[in-house]
């Protein structure tokens, strides 16, 4: 059984064109699946729908075979810890009033009654935070700092540490390197690959950066105007038989 199955997902705003139209795909356990397309094609809307931050018009979202689209409120809560997101702008994703330690502890405090952690231990919250920072290759001393005291690369590593803190099965990476300099981009991609292997994570890697997606993802979906128009393996991305829009995207790099 696939970890994530999406069937004919459609999401519209007001009376306009659907932001996402009849999207169907599967994501396997341990897979890193790429989703590419120009800005405004519906990638981030799809991510919000998968996280159940948006209600969908029609379709299905199954996580571990459970229909997420049918759940609301308290019934949805048990599934939320299984899927986490890392966003493009870590400065906006972190509460400026919380220290790194408090940001990392918050998800644990929210879900601790139902957690059975395999990779991190909680002999104390300080030791737990230290393990999380070590996992993203940051010194434990950063736990007492605030987001504005960190570099962009450090902030993004903290958001990754927060995402893995409750050991989700699926992480949605929505343009996770777009706001970083080239050096930090490479380091974060390397870290994400390492974490995927050590923690058994599955990724939906959303980006308009084909180079990053090519590096991270053996299989790639191509989205245009809210629709899935092409899908291929990494090796097939540059084949002549690809959709004209896919070839257009490739030609930009």
UniProtKB/TrEMBL annotation:
Q: Which GO molecular function annotations are given, in alphabetical order?
A: ATP binding; ATP hydrolysis activity
The keyword Transmembrane helix is annotated on this UniProt entry:
no
Endpoints of the signal sequence: none
InterPro entries linked: AAA+_ATPase, ABC_transp_ATP-bind, ABC_transporter-like_ATP-bd, ABC_transporter-like_CS, P-loop_NTPase
Q: Where is the ABC transporter domain?
A: 4-250
Top-level lineage group:
Bacteria
Output the Gene3D superfamilies linked to this UniProt entry. Answer: P-loop containing nucleotide triphosphate hydrolases (3.40.50.300)
Q: Name one Pfam family in it.
A: ABC_tran
Which Gene Ontology BP terms does the record give?
A: transmembrane transport
Carries keyword Nucleotide-binding?
yes
Cite the entry's keywords alphabetically. ATP-binding, Nucleotide-binding, Transport
Under SMART domains, the record lists:
AAA (SM00382)
Spell out the family assignment given in the record's similarity comment.
Answer: Belongs to the ABC transporter superfamily.
Specify the protein name.
Oligopeptide ABC transporter ATP-binding protein
Q: Which organism is it from?
A: Paenibacillus algicola
């Amino acid at each position: 059984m696939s970890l994530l199955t999406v069937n004919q997902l459609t999401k519209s705003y007001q009376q306009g064109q659907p932001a996402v139209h009849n999207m169907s795909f599967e994501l396997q356990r341990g897979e890193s699946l790429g989703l590419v397309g120009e800005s405004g094609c519906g990638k981030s809307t799809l991510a919000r729908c998968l996280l159940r931050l948006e209600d969908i018009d029609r379709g299905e979202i199954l996580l571990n075979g459970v229909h997420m689209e049918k759940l609301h409120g308290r019934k949805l809560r048990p599934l939320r810890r299984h899927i986490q997101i890392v966003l493009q702008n870590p400065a906006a994703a972190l509460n400026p009033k919380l220290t790194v330690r408090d940001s990392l502890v918050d998800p644990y405090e929210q879900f601790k009654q139902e957690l059975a952690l395999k990779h991190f231990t909680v002999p104390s919250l300080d030791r737990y935070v230290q393990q999380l920072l070590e996992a993203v290759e940051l010194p434990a001393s950063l736990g007492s700092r605030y987001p504005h005291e960190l570099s962009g690369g450090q902030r993004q590593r903290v958001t990754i540490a927060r995402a893995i803190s409750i050991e989700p099965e699926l992480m949605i990476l929505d343009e996770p390197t777009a706001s970083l300099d080239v050096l930090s981009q490479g380091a974060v991609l390397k870290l994400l690959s390492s974490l995927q292997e050590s923690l058994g994570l599955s990724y939906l890697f959303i980006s308009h950066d084909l180079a990053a997606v090519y590096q991270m993802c053996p299989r790639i979906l191509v989205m245009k105007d809210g629709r899935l128009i092409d899908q291929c393996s990494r090796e097939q991305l540059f084949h002549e038989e690809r959709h004209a829009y896919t070839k257009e995207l490739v030609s930009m790099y």
